[in-house]
Design brief:
Blueprint lengths: L4 E5 L10 H20 L4 H14 L19 E7 L4 E8 L5 H11 L4 E3 H10 L13 H13 L11 E6 L5 E7 L20 E4 L3 E7 L1 H7 L1 H8 L5 H15 L5 E7 L4 E5 L6 E4 L5 E4 L8
């Protein structure tokens, strides 16, 4: 038997002008939702999905309701769910009419013979599989719409001031690993732009007897080094904190000064986090049920 553990992140970024108490309350609620699944004997896959749904529903985070708006004034969302026990995954990209993309990613994994659906085809699949279809405007918060109007009126710099992709990683009592990642992408992204989040091995990855990870940050950079697989592979021999630091250094060797963050759990249950941004809110549960949070990680032990 393995002691279940879980860690979530709310996105690597500057997190300027936010109430950090409210931000940490958000990731705490997500971790608690995931932990309730594990405590009841649920699987790691179920736990990371539950935690991510909580983050997608929270207006403060760039996923689901609260996602950034693209250049066309629309929300396009990406999500990825990875099962370390079977080395399978479900992924969706540029979804526009689904409240919780991570649920659709799970259905891609479990209800189709495929792995990735995108755009209108993903929304159509959601309808066929019985998910509620909503209007795109329902995903846009008043705050993000005001930011969008301001950006197009005054064109102020916005990159780096936002939040970021959300994610969750868990190990269950059977020793199975899983990860989930979800995002609304970058503010004012071109229509159809897809980052690392739905890319297996880049935005997320899980493999039993190695590790599981979820990434956040500049997707164009993360994809180039397949950051999550790079980190998980290193967890065969290193602890999660060591592997994430090493993977971050590997990435920096090719892409200096890249804004990025990553969380992970190795096959022995060690938790890790690493980021190069000013902040990356995280919450974690070690096994006693107590949820702990931090706005940024200093590299110390969990």
């Amino acid at each position: 038997m393995t002691t279940p553990r879980l860690i979530v992140h709310g996105g690597a970024g500057e997190w300027l002008n936010f109430d950090e108490t409210v931000v940490q309350d958000g990731v705490r609620a997500a971790a608690a939702a995931g932990w309730s699944v594990l405590a009841a004997g649920g699987t790691a896959l179920e736990a990371v999905e539950a935690a991510t749904i909580k983050l997608e529903d929270h207006p403060l985070f760039d996923a689901g309701y609260g996602s950034f708006i693209n250049q066309e004034g629309e929300v396009e969302m990406d999500a990825l769910l990875c099962d370390g026990a079977t080395l399978t995954f479900g992924s969706v990209a540029a979804v526009r009419r689904v409240k919780n993309p991570i649920i659709l990613a799970r259905l891609v994994m479990t209800r189709t013979p495929h792995h990735i659906f995108a755009g209108d085809g993903a929304d159509q699949l959601a309808a066929r599989l019985g998910l509620p279809i909503i209007s795109n405007i329902e995903l846009i918060t008043e705050k993000e719409f005001a930011h969008y109007r301001s950006r197009h009126k005054d064109a102020p710099p916005r990159l780096g001031l936002g939040t970021g992709t959300v994610g969750a990683v868990a190990i269950d009592a059977a020793g199975n690993l899983a990860s989930a990642t979800s995002t609304g992408g970058t503010p004012d992204k071109p229509k159809g732009r897809i980052g690392d989040s739905p890319i297996y091995g880049a935005g997320g990855y899980a493999r039993n007897r190695a590790g599981a990870c979820s990434a956040t940050g500049q997707g164009e950079h993360i994809m180039r080094v397949f950051l999550c697989k790079e980190a998980a592979d290193r967890m065969q021999d290193l602890t999660a904190p060591e592997a994430l630091t090493a993977a971050g250094a590997f990435m920096a060797g090719y892409i200096p000064n890249s804004d990025m963050g990553i969380i992970g759990i190795d096959w022995q249950g060690n938790l890790g986090a690493y980021h190069t941004t000013r902040a990356m809110p995280i919450a974690w549960v070690m096994g006693d049920g107590a949820v702990k949070t931090a706005m940024r990680w200093d590299g110390g032990a969990f």
